[in-house]
Amino acid sequence: MPESTNEQELQKLDEADVSKLHWKIVLISGMGFFTDAYDLFIIGVVMAMLKPEWHLTAIQTGLVTSTALLASAVGAVLFGRVADLLGRKRIYGVEVLVLAAGAIACGLAPNIVWLIVFRIVLGLGIGGDYPVSATLMSEYAGKKSRGMLISLVFAMQAAGLIFGPLFAAVLLASSLSHDLIWRILLAFGAVPALAVFFARRKIDETPRFKMAQDKRRKNQEEGASSEGDFWGGFQSLTRRRRSLIRLLGVSFAWFLLDFAYYGNTVSSPLVLATLAPHASLLKITLTQLAIFVAAAAPGYLVAAVTMDRLGRKFIQVLGFGVMAAAFAAIALIPGIEKQMLPFLGIYGLSYFFTEFGPNTTTFVYPAEIFPVAMRTTGHGIAAAMGKVGAFIGVFLFPLLMTWKGLPGAEMAAALVSALGLVVTVLMLPETKGKTLEELNEGGPSSAHSEGPMEEFLAVGAKAES
Fold this sequence. Notes:
Blueprint: H1 3-15, H2 20-54, H3 58-86, H4 88-91, H5 94-107, H6 112-140, H7 146-172, H8 178-187, H9 190-195, H10 197-201, H11 207-221, H12 230-239, H13 241-266, H14 268-273, H15 281-310, H16 312-332, H17 340-355, H18 358-364, H19 375-427, H20 436-440, H21 452-464
């Protein structure tokens, strides 16, 4: 394809208004994140039922709630790299089949060992959805609406967070046995995934990837590229100063965010039980539902609406800052966990600014700040680091609550959130209003899209030369 034709095609993509195709991609991509959030919530309810039924130890409980997160880290890296090698289209849909198979198998698990194994399968599919869905949306979106559209894909988590406790509450209020309820709750995760499988398979390959593939093929013929093999892409991503700094920035930020977010959310039944130690599981579930509806869902929507106006960096810094303050308040205000309205207000505030903050921006950033030939690879690595942080947070949060109580666990979340703010300020650029090529290929605005760390190293490199 001639260079002028490429430029015209890119300009057409960058200047495009939001179309039916964009909304279609938002819907079919977002269903994977509906399932991710649904599973994130529902496993806490399931374990509350399984622990007395199967007489689980603390270690077994921790493994069930956290192994899917480690598996999703593997899935994100694997699917992310393959999508850069084979294309977004060829891999799109495979990840939801893996996810659906894992969800159904979890619902049929005969014992704790098999439940852990099937949660690993589920996690592989969930992790694979992150880099492919985000990148597909970013490469089709116009520069003025890209942040909003990628955010809306991720905002489908809000529907999962609301539907999960609502569905659980309906089943808990029924006459069904707990053994049947937890199996239904886990197996249901396959339904939204399978609903969009065929639609995902029909999405066309992105023009940007087609152009990159043509360029890669030409470079390989000239012996000038190693990006076409599995490990070569990782090496290319870390060899370049800008890509390495950005990779470290988004990975650390996502790791820190998920440590605090998943730790709090998966353990929310334990957190809310401090308010009402004798409350039933149904009452705690309805309280969680109220928090998600009043705080989390609006946060997602505000993030999507303002992403292209306020910018990713501003929103991420603001979110981390308020999270740190809210968690610190819970940790430091004496007896706050015994005062229902003040506690729920602060706890809800942390959820709002998590969603209108780093939980959304850490998903958007990696879909923009890497070259097209390494975009899903970079996003996969960042998402994997997030899931590793989530694993550690989910595993440690109950232990911290046992050791130092709720104040100890929330102070850890506060310190981690404050560190996330510092990482964002030092290592990440602002991307709003810029094309993907300007951000990554040395375009006219690329010199103004660097973070302080990149600018510092760039000055040092010039001085050396």
